[in-house]
Design brief:
about 475 residues, Leucine-rich repeat, LRR (right-handed beta-alpha superhelix), signal, Leu-rich_rpt_typical-subtyp, repeat, seven-stranded mixed β-sheet, Cys-rich_flank_reg_C, LRR_dom_sf
Length: about 475
């Protein structure tokens, strides 16, 4: 065989091998990742949509913040509040079966049929402050143990009684702050919540339309009129002029409508940034935390918190508050934390803090404290309650004391003041009738008022004026 022919065959073989090498390499890559990748992909997608981790816990959420699981008094809580969730996390996400599921402040728009399958152990479900506009009839299927359902602050216009049927033990239902359209489709729901035994279902919820029912509580709507056809000429929705009623006197805002209420794990009310000019009425007795910050409550009045007997934490910061009446905090016997920072307080009146027996933290910064005799009560009270951690009590005026700690100012005042108050006369001189109504007697009366009555030393003599 000629040498040239053999060389040609060799070159052809090399060329064919070069063509086959990329194909072999691609097959190796497919073989190494194909079946395994196919098996893993659904798991990874399921975890991403669920909200925390897979059943085995090997994969964690990337796009969405993690929810938290906690146990309190033997109950398992799942806290998914404010996590930008668009749907309900799958029940397989959690290590234990939760009894309380917190989904407030998310972006959920629709509750589809079977949305809570696997959550049969739930006793409470918080869905407030979402964008829910539709609840399908079988959305709550399986929740036979549920006792509390919070749907307030959403976009619901209508809801059928069928939605409530899967929850035979429901005892507490909140529906307010939704744009309820009180027409025929709402008849069955309204009849249900008006049953006397359902006194805690749908309280405070009001119609948004039609015009003739706007502002009427669902509890007060006559369900027998909802499905009757109205004549065009008498329909008040098309004739608003005929339905004009005298405006009622301005009433105090209600806490239930003005605040966001969270029931678990403790009852909390968020009333911040609501444009409030006074403390709302109707604060429930079992509330342990109230945030009233960033409003315009300039004047705290007596008995504003008389119903909040269980309150532990009260935030009144950033209200531009100028005055606090003596009994404004009366009844708060169990309060532990009080935030009065970033207001316009010059001093605190005598007696304001007297009911705060268990206070442990007091925030006072950001106020224009005036270091004169009016500020002494605050310092005396703090001395009598050494367990109270306080901050921000610094003189803003007068200029000679600006930046000085109020406690230091009061101490220096008490060191210097006795020199001006020395009395060289005897007790007999003070009882001399010739000295009555003189400058010496007036000086003695001023001295007596320099300390609150409960801090004064017992007096040896009492002067009784007979004329």
């Amino acid at each position: 065989m000629p040498a040239g022919f053999r060389m040609g065959i060799s070159l052809l073989v090399v060329f064919l091998l070069l063509l086959l090498l990329p194909s072999i390499e691609m097959r190796r890559q497919r073989k190494g990742r194909g079946p395994k990748a196919i098996r893993q992909k659904p798991t990874r997608d399921r975890v991403r949509g669920a909200g925390r981790h897979s059943r085995s816990g090997s994969f964690r959420l990337v796009e969405l913040p993690e929810c938290s699981e906690l146990t309190e008094s033997g109950d398992v809580f799942v806290d998914c509040q404010d996590r930008r969730l668009l749907s309900i996390p799958t029940s397989q996400t959690w290590s234990k079966k939760p009894k309380h599921l917190l989904l407030a402040q998310n972006q959920i728009k629709v509750l589809q049929d079977g949305a809570f399958l696997g959550y049969e152990s739930l006793t409470s479900l918080d869905l407030q402050q979402n964008y829910i506009s539709l609840v399908e009839e079988e959305a709550f299927r399986g929740l036979t143990h549920l006792t509390t359902l919070l749907l307030q602050h959403n976009r619901l216009g209508t809801l059928s009684e069928e939605v409530l049927i899967p929850m035979p033990n429901l005892r507490y239902l909140r529906l307010y702050d939704n744009p309820w359209n009180c027409h025929c489709q709402m008849e069955s729901l309204i009849r249900t919540i008006q049953v006397p035994s359902n006194r805690n279902l749908g309280n405070h919820a009001r119609c948004a339309k039609p015009f003739k029912l706007k502002g009427t509580k669902l509890k007060q709507v006559d369900p027998g009129l909802l499905c009757k056809e109205s004549h065009p000429t008498t329909d008040l929705e098309t004739d608003p002029i005929s339905s004009v009623e005298p405006s009622s006197l301005r009433s105090k805002p209600n806490a239930i409508n003005s605040c966001h209420t969270y029931l678990f794990p403790q009852v909390r009310m968020d009333c911040s940034k609501q444009g409030l000019t006074e403390v709302p009425a109707g604060i429930p007795e079992d509330v342990v935390y109230i945030d009233l910050s960033h409003n315009s409550i300039r004047h705290l009045k007596a008995r504003d918190f008389q119903s909040a007997i269980s309150l532990r934490t009260l935030n009144l910061s950033n209200n531009n508050m100028e005055h606090m009446d003596t009994a404004s905090l009366s009844g708060l016997l169990h309060l532990h934390e009080l935030d009065l920072s970033d207001n316009s307080l010059h001093f605190v009146k005598y007696g304001v803090l007297e009911d705060l027996y268990f206070l442990s933290q007091l925030k006072l910064g950001g106020n224009p404290w005036v270091c004169n005799y009016s500020i002494h009560y605050m310092v005396y009270w703090l001395r009598l309650h050494p367990g109270v951690r306080h901050s921000g009590l610094v003189c803003r005026s007068p200029p000679e004391h600006t930046g000085e700690r109020v406690e230091k100012y009061v101490s220096s005042y008490n060191r210097e003041c006795p020199k001006d108050r020395q009395n060289s006369k005897t007790d007999q001189d003070q009882t001399d009738p010739e000295l009555w109504n003189t400058a010496m007697e007036v000086h003695g009366e001023v001295e007596e008022e320099l300390e609150p009555s409960n801090l004064r030393a017992p007096q040896k003599y009492d002067i009784i004026r007979l004329s």
